[in-house]
Amino acid sequence: MISKDKKREIVKELGEDLGKATALYFSSINGVKTTELNNFKAKLKEVGGKAKVMKKTLLDLALKRKGLEEDWREKLEGSILVNFVFEDPLSPAKILKEFSKQNKNFKIIGGLLDKKFLTADLVEELANIPAKNVLYGRLAGAIYLPPYRLVYSLKSNLFRLARVINAIGNK
Prior knowledge:
By secondary structure, this protein is an alpha+beta fold. It has helices spanning about 5-20, 35-45, 55-65, 90-100, 120-130, 130-170, and strands at about 25-30, 50-55, 80-85, 105-115, 115-120. Helix content is about 60%, strand content about 15%.
């Protein structure tokens, strides 16, 4: 059993992480092997995330202190892994989705983004959104392509005109 002082310390640390986090994802880890979980945590850390196994009561206290009063506890079942996201919320969502496909015992329960509870389906939809740099590349291509096509078509017409003039001149 954890002492009250230790619980206060955990809630305080959790509150600090909640203050820094841009998003939270909740997952059920009943039956997940420790080695697999450690590999998952390492992958999450690479993309600016952090994962902690958390007691629901302590998580509830920390969320209430941060002004999140929604009754989300009913949506969480079993052992809960709280995935803190400190940067881009898409990359960790992709890792969660990939890991849940690889491990049948790991289930995405939901998340919090902009102080709103997300269902598991919404978290998986977030995972399907391309990364920021891919979206930037698509935007750059969309901006670059129309003028390129215009220049190419004008250039090809000029070449055709030059060939016609050259053919007339050679007669």
